[in-house]
């Protein structure tokens, strides 16, 4: 087996990155078999990557299962391929096998696994992965830190998400967008606005995903005026005149304002949003803007304390395990 021949086949396989080029990958695969080169770990890995990039996950798995020597790269490819195709349980299953063989995850292994854990709501698995991130000192990799943050947000755990966000050395546009969107989806408009204000104050640039998220957060009655305050920032941004989503978000915000004014003129009222929780068999209801609960003052004070602590950048040490 000549080095030159292996290099030539490897180069051909690495050019196969889309489904339209799959025929070239299959031809090259056949040629490696005919020439007896398929036992070469480099070619096996390149073939695995080619099938994965072309979206042929079953073919990729066949190559993976037949590999005589699976290196770190091949394990990462297989895990990422399953996660990319939303086959989350399969990704976690491969990782279990990976761990049993004594491999340790790296900064390429963990992001797709965190995505898979969130996809199947495996909170325990995700927290174990977060533990790996901390033990291996990988939290400062931007893609890893962002993946941990996104995991907690997708699982609806805003408290741990905020802890991760506060501990990030690089709170870039992606991280800020995730945090703003998480607060907006939870209806925590004030927190979303505070995060947006901090983002602008630190000089982090907005992008086309920032603005719809913050405008959605401003859809609530109490935050409407704040939404108008950020309107100027949006109009001055380079995305205002070219992004349809941003334009629609602004129209929707203006529509909400007009609708509320019309309802007020007609003497109509909107049923306020309500959430409830059962404690010891007793149902406790909470309405938007309602302070009639007998422990309303205590709840408000406790919530304020929690928010204050979470807003402190050094409230949670970087070495604390979740």
From TrEMBL:
It comes from Tripterygium wilfordii. PANTHER family: PENTATRICOPEPTIDE REPEAT-CONTAINING PROTEIN (PTHR47926), SMK1 (PTHR47926:SF516). The keyword Chloroplast does not apply. This is Pentatricopeptide repeat-containing protein. PPR repeats lie at residues 71-105, 172-206. Transmembrane segments: none annotated. InterPro entries: PPR_At4g14850-like_plant (IPR046960), PPR_rpt (IPR002885), TPR-like_helical_dom_sf (IPR011990). GO terms for molecular function: RNA binding. Keywords: Repeat. One of its GO terms (biological process) is RNA modification. It holds the Pfam family PPR_2.
